[in-house]
Write a structure and sequence with these properties.
The complex is a heterodimer of chains A (319) and B (142). Chain A is an alpha/beta fold. Chain A folds into two domains: 10-131 and 292-318, Rossmann fold (3-Layer(aba) Sandwich); 134-288, Rossmann fold, CATH 3.40.50.1370. Chain A has helices spanning 15-30, 32-35, 53-65, 87-94, 110-117, 133-147, 165-174, 194-201, 214-217, 237-243, 285-306, 312-318, and strands at 43-48, 69-73, 100-105, 122-127, 154-158, 181-185, 207-211, 223-226, 262-264. In chain A, the strands form two sheets. In chain A, strands 7-6-5-8-9 form a five-stranded parallel sheet, covered by helices on one side. Chain A has a four-stranded parallel sheet with strand order 2-1-3-4, with helices on both faces. In chain A, α6 packs across α7 (165-174) and α6 crosses α11. The model of chain A has no long low-confidence stretch (mean pLDDT 92). Chain B is mainly beta. Chain B is 10% helix and 36% strand. Chain B has helices spanning 20-26, 63-69, and strands at 9-16, 36-44, 48-55, 74-79, 82-88, 94-96, 117-122, 127-130. Chain B has a five-stranded antiparallel sheet, covered by helices on one side. Chain B is elongated and about 50 Å long. The two termini of chain B are 32 Å apart. The mean pLDDT of chain B is 90. The chains are: A alpha/beta (319), B mainly beta (142).
């Protein structure tokens, strides 16, 4: 296995590395006490150049549960970026204080720039509309825990498939597994971009269908990944008003769904999943949040281990 | 038309007709003090018409720029009036500061000191993507 120094794009991880992270995350869930001191004395810097409370809290909770500490900032105004400092310089400074960095930045490619200037591991915690690999890891852990495997699944993606980066990343990650069938459900205006199909679906011979009708395909789905259809994505208000309710998941639309369907959503939700569905055992979006913390714990451990910050032998034995 | 032979320098041959001036500008050849000749629309048995650039000085030229604009050119290195080396280039795998990313959301749009890096994704279709944001290079990105 190649040495993992940073995590910028989910495709930086091989299938084996993802399996390894999922294995560790599952072990953390089963035996949390075993991991509660693993990062004692280590520091995670959360460099959030734009606010993202949920992702930041997830990283911080992950580090605290490993026994480590956290430092950082939650918006650019409270960092030296507001004085015009470059990402490279901020990284070189933080190198001196922290053992690992989680960076969120509105500009695409900023975490890659950080990784090129870092002496410690850098995790991309979201760069604009580009990558958000730890969200994809949270999605993958959820799928593995709910379905037991990534193979032979029919996965429906519903809503904004054009701008939804979580959808693009998850399609990229799942395309590497056997027997995947993808069902793309969106208004014509928000169809999956052709480059995602040509980069992931076509080269891997993934069977896929495109439709505008969620109810029509519901019975086929093993997983339904919902995203929000945002008003600002439409050129005119009429189209938005005409289409918005088609992509709101209600108990009525779930009537023909499989009894073991897994309903996912990267959150935050606005109204695209009716709150009545929260009580349905098939609703897994809050489990995704929890899984996000566990997979981030596994990732922090893995990167610190690879960096030699945590003793390799000790972790290797326990894995 | 007579163009003097060069003694020590470079001849960039087999430039597609019409690309010679573009290459001249991108290579910054206007800044040179030495003789530089651009031959436009020269007759070529293989290409029909071609452009040629002759630089009468032993200088380093940016092969990435040449490869990006005209991957099929031939570079002839002339020393003491004779052909010392002849090489083909092809599309460079990585472009450094040859073209600029035009994605306003790319980190290179705000951090001016960063190198503009593009990775060759598809040689057949000449597709380059920004290393930072993965935006496809537009045909007129120079």
């Amino acid at each position: 296995m190649s040495q993992l120094k940073h995590l910028i794009d989910i495709l930086d991880l091989s299938v084996e590395e993802i399996d390894d992270l999922i294995r560790v995350a599952n072990d953390i869930i089963e035996n949390p006490a075993k991991y509660s001191e693993k990062c004692r004395g280590k520091k995670l810097a959360t460099l959030f150049f734009e606010p993202s409370t949920r992702t930041r809290l997830s990283f911080e909770a992950a580090m605290y549960e490993l026994g480590g500490n956290v430092l950082g900032f939650s918006e650019a105004q409270s960092s030296s970026a507001s004085k015009g400092e470059s990402v490279a310089d901020t990284t070189k400074v933080v190198n001196c204080y922290a053992d690992i960095i989680a960076m969120r930045h509105p500009k695409e490619g900023a975490p890659l720039v950080a990784s090129l200037n870092a002496t410690v591991p850098v995790i991309n915690a979201g760069d604009g509309g580009h990558f958000h690999p730890t969200q994809t890891l949270a999605d993958l852990l959820t799928i593995q825990r709910e379905k037991g495997s990534f193979e032979n699944l029919t996965v429906g993606f519903c809503g904004d498939l054009k701008f939804g980066r979580t959808v693009h990343s998850l399609i990229g990650a799942l395309s590497r597994y056997k027997g995947l069938k993808v069902v793309l459900i969106s208004p014509v205006e928000l169809k999956l971009p052709s480059y995602v199909k040509s980069e992931h679906l076509k080269p891997n011979n993934i069977e896929y269908i495109q439709t505008t009708n969620l109810e029509e395909v519901m019975p086929q789905l093993d997983i339904l990944y919902m995203t929000r259809v945002q008003r600002e994505r439409f050129f005119n208000e009429e189209d938005y008003l005409r289409l918005k309710d088609s992509y709101i998941l209600t108990p009525q639309k779930l009537k023909t769904a499989k009894p073991d369907l897994t309903i996912m959503h990267p959150l935050p939700r606005v109204n695209e999943i009716s709150v009545e569905i929260d009580k349905d055992p098939r609703a897994c979006y809050f489990k995704q949040v929890l899984n996000g913390k566990y997979i981030r714990m596994a990732l922090i451990l893995k990167l610190l281990q690879e960096a030699g910050t945590i003793p390799t032998e000790e972790l290797a034995n326990e894995y | 038309m007579n163009i003097d032979s060069i003694k020590n320098g470079i001849v960039i041959d087999h430039i597609p007709a019409g690309s010679g001036m573009k290459l001249y500008a991108l290579l910054g050849l206007e800044k040179l003090d030495c003789p530089v000749a651009i031959i436009k629309n020269a007759v070529s048995s293989a290409m029909g018409r071609k452009d040629i650039i002759k630089i009468d000085a032993d200088i380093e030229v940016n092969l990435d720029i040449i490869g990006y604009v005209s991957p099929n050119v031939t570079i002839n290195i002339i020393r003491d009036g004779v052909l010392a080396e002849k090489k083909s280039i092809g599309l460079p795998k990585l472009l450094k500061n040859v073209i600029k990313c035009k994605n306003p959301r790319c980190i290179t749009s705000t951090e001016q000191e960063l190198d503009h890096l593009f990775r060759l994704e598809n040689a057949e279709e000449k597709v380059y993507r920004c290393v930072y944001c993965e935006t496809k290079a537009a045909a007129d990105s120079e």
